[in-house]
Amino acid sequence: MSGHGYETGRLNLPFVGISTFGKRPYVEDWSKIAADVAVMGAPFDFGTQFRAGARFGPRAVREASTLFSFGHAGAYDHEDDCTYLGADVRIVDIGDADIVHTDTEKSHANIEAGVRAMLAAGALPVVIGGDHSINIPCIRAFDEACAKDGPIHIVQIDAHLDFVDIRHGVVHGHGNPMRRAAERDYVSGITALGIRNVSSTAKDGYEAARAMGDDILSVRQVRKLGAEGVLARIPKGARIYVTIDIDGFCPSIAPGTGTPSHGGFLYYEVLEILQGIAKAHEVVGVDLVE
Q: Residue 4 pLDDT > 70, yes or no?
């Protein structure tokens, strides 16, 4: 393999070194982000109603991601006959937003500041949660970018609609993010995929969601339509923000979540939809939560 330049520098196996995302460079100074993609952790879980622990999500995702740090040559997929994430894609890890225990508003403001810094640098923001309330500051950070480049459409992978308006005074918990997003004039609509069985959102929340432009599909409805049918429902030319709640997946493959819900997606079902979105749309941001 020496002829391909693979013998230069360190081998840098997955279990060696510091666990940044994909073992990519760490950028501590948010005014000096120079990358195509920037990854930030949002280790916040004060918004949960049941099982906490998602504050450890960013750390665990980073550690798991080292297995897929393919180093010199990117990642070759024989099925697509394509090498992904080669040297031409600049990815950095900017660390975590600072979380102030019990202070939701301050913690959310710090997350928002991180997303704004990534957008200002022209990098695709990828935020690892944390509970789903972290989507609220993520979307809030897009106001200036959308004023310049136009509105965004949200694709939500989730078991729950997360469209609660207010419950016992709580407006920024993990049941509220899609309602808060829909209230933004620069969010043109939401496509919610995987919503199923008993939800945390009551019937009136579903009615409000549909009235505010939410297209809601269960796992079974998505399977009936197939990936192409689902993609056809997303507005043509829309700029897409993807929010992925891990409980959108079947708990048999993703059990470590705050509110597991039986009967979810399998890996390739979501992958094919995301690949279709990436081919047909500009993706402007991603978060992975819960």
A: no
**pLDDT higher for 6 or 91?**
91
What is the reported pLDDT for 153? 98
Alpha helices in 141-265 (DSSP H): 143-149, 177-182, 203-211, 219-233
Please state the pTM of the whole predicted model.
0.94
Torsions phi, psi of 249, nearest 5? -85, 160
- What are the pLDDT digits (tens) for 61-87? 999 999 988 666 788 899 999 998 888
Burial of 85 (0-12, 13-18, 19+ CB in 10 A): middle
Alpha-carbon gap, residue 90 to 27, rounded angstroms: 12
279 backbone dihedrals φ, ψ, rounded to 5°: -75, -35
- Write the burial class of residue 151 (CB in 10 Å: 0-12 exposed, 13-18 middle, 19+ buried): middle
Residue type at 32?
Answer: K
Number of other CB atoms surrounding residue 232 within 10 Å: 12
Contact 257, 246 (CB under 8 A): yes
CA separation (Å) from 241 to 8, 157, 205, 223? 38, 11, 22, 22
- From residue 62, how far is each of 3, 39, 120 by CA, in Å? 32, 10, 24
Tens digits of residue pLDDT in 196-208: 987 778 889 899 9
Tokens of 200: 């945390």
Distance CA 23, CA 41 (A): 14
- Within the chain, residue ranges assigned H as helices are 57-65, 104-120, 135-140, 143-149, 177-182, 203-211, 219-233, 267-280
